[in-house]
Amino acid sequence: xxxxxxxxxxxxxxxxxxxxxxxxxxxxxxxxxxxxxxxxxxxxxxxxxxxxxxxxxxxxxxxxxxxxxxxxxxxxxxxxxxxxxxxxxxxxxxxxxxxxxxxxxxxxxxxxxxxxxxxxxxxxxxxxxxxxxxxxxxxxxxxxxxxxxxxxxxxxxxxxxxxxxxxxxxxxxxxxxxxxxxxxxxxxxxxxxxxxxxxxxxxxxxxxxxxxxxxxxxxxxxxxxxxxxxxxxxxxxxxxxxxxxxxxxxxxxxxxxxxxxxxxxxxxxxxxxxxxxxxxxxxxxxxxxxxxxxxxxxxxxxxxxxxxxxxxxxxxxxxxxxxxxxxxxxxxxxxxxxxxxxxxxxxxxxxxxxxxxxxxxxxxxxxxxxxxxxxxxx
Length: 378
Hints:
By secondary structure, the protein is of the alpha/beta class. 38% of the residues lie in helices and 14% in strands.
């Protein structure tokens, strides 16, 4: 098997997480809504324990955590869920960025088609959005500002603390898509001014199909006034009806617990892998896209002059599994909207490769990789 370097697309399930999932699938398999027997009570305790583990990572309250099927659903609930309130208050303006995942951009486009106005803020050449630009885009009608935590293609960490300061005298809700950064970077996601945080389990060694939307209270005691997108039950404060997938939730909770417990050692190991990747890129004549001093170590995006990324992927598929964009778009490949927003040259867009990895990865024989790069250069 080739070395797997596409962790930004999805991660394997940690064996310890898998054990927890299996336990609540096959041993204590109760419905957390069943309150009359031990099976249901134990299931509910597992769900509430998972809320606590997620809250520990974010320094929020366990009651803030609403379980969803993943960050895409959480993003939709955060943005579309504010629609009714925005219309009722005459606040129908949204601020977001040109580097967001489509799970944010497409709900925003939907709202724009239904009467909202949108300001899309561009990043700088390193893929970083300026807090000043976000502040300049605000109007009295701004309902929500949505800025991601860590970019899924470049690994660039966005200045959430500075954006929070730009919003301190504004009523707009601050939503953060933290799919790539949750459990990998702590301080910025603990910024008190953030109202809504979307997370996804399968980016952090938990199963696919589970995530959460964190809906924090403001000093007034009020939460963001979300309306549900689905109906049929009062689970998750009525915002996400349906029987809770206890096993998946318990797995996400365990993944969050382990991430917090092991974050220092994981980052140290990931930086060692990053060094190997950067050395290969330099040897192979590549150029890194973005400022590595402002990125998580787990994602490196690089372009190789005279190289088509699709050709690289095919040529090296027996050695390494990498990508040239977000997995959600791979079935209809287009040049990266993120790198395009950074105003990179067309040749760099066409030759861009994303290496994304865990703290336990090892790069395959770099001499073989370099030889393959040389072979497919045009």
